[in-house]
Amino acid sequence: MKIFKNRGDIYFPKSTYKSSKETQILRVLLVFIVIFTVAFIVFLSQHYSSAADFFGKGEITVTENEVQEEILPEIEGKTNFLVFETDEDKTAINFIFLVQADKTNKAYKVCSLFRGMKIDGKSLYDIYSTGGGASLQTKLTEYLGIQIDYFAEFDTTSFNNFVTKLGTFIYPISEDIKFTGGKGDNKYTVHLNEGEQKIDAQTLSNLIRYYSDEKKNYSAENEIILYSLTRLFNADNYEDCDSLFRLFIKSATTNVTVRNFENNKNALMVFCKANTSITLYSADTKYEGKTITQDSVKEIKGYFSK
Fold first, then answer.
1. Cβ distance 154 to 251 under 8 Å?
2. What is the rounded CA–CA span in Å between residue 174 and residue 193?
3. Residue 77 backbone zone (phi > 0: left; psi -120 to 50: alpha; other: beta)
4. Cβ neighbours of residue 132 under 8 Å, at least 6 residues apart?
């Protein structure tokens, strides 16, 4: 570019002019960015407590790699069950216990009973032989002063078939057990070493009988029952709960109906899917001869009253 003056020509190089103009534009843009950033930060500080609050507004987006926690239904109330096993010919009770599913406090409560226990001079088997499981349910409800809602009666084979379908679990045995007991066709054997042992259906049945009948260690019996409940009623079995219920109805003599099952599916879901966080309680019974002590009756009421 040329500008003509009296004393010759003065030149402004074209490239220098262009560079100067771009510099001015950049400076203006820089000033604008600084002003905008300051204003933005002031706005954030006045309206949001953090950047996370601004971007998320309290909402969390779950990516494919994150595991979303399942929201379990709210449940409440308490349900008491009477469970017992007989021999194949129903001529003897092998073991008998109470279970409460405490839905309000998310807890299992268990109380093992002496199978030779007597009520008003009659043994549990005498009561059972005249009216079946319903008779035992009614008599124990009256005698213990608690409401037993349901009973489930198995013989040895049906108990093993049902628990086999539920699966196995690992249990930490605190002692070596080498024992054979029972009489005639109703004999049983327990061979377990101290330490973690795989417990299947047959072993579970025999171990409960061993603690109940031979050792009369109702605390140990309660413990193995509680352990089995938290391991066998699990998320996998809940997914198959309809077919398991059909097997239960086929295997057991019970007053649990299809309607009862459907009405309690939410509770079953919670106890199965939150099983390792379920609280466990044990009521240990004591006897004078074959009669339960009044202190034990009071303890059972404390645990199983609704």
1. yes
2. 9
3. left
4. 153, 253
pLDDT at 46 over 90: no
> Which amino acid does the sequence have at 269?
M
Distance CA 152, CA 82 (A): 6
- pLDDT tens across 54-109, in order? 555 444 444 444 445 679 999 999 999 999 999 999 999 999 999 999 999 999 99
* C-alpha span between 154 and 149 (Å, rounded): 17
| Rounded Cα–Cα distance for residues 279 and 107 (Å) | 4
Tell me the DSSP string of 196-220.
Answer: EEEE-HHHHHHHHHIIIIIS--HHH
Structure tokens at 135: 């008779």
Q: How many Cβ atoms are within 10 Å of 260's Cβ, its own excluded?
A: 14
Please name which of 231, 235, 85 lies closest in space to residue 171, comparing C-alpha atoms: 231
CB of 131 closer than 8 Å to CB of 213: no
* Cα–Cα distance for residue pair 257/145, rounded to 1 Å: 24
Question: Nearest CA to 180 among 172, 189, 170?
Answer: 189
Question: Cα 88 to the chain's mean position, in Å?
Answer: 32
- Residue 25: per-residue pLDDT: 73
Q: Identify residue 1 by its one-letter amino acid code.
A: M
Least Cα distance to 111 among 219, 208, 229, 268 occurs for: 219
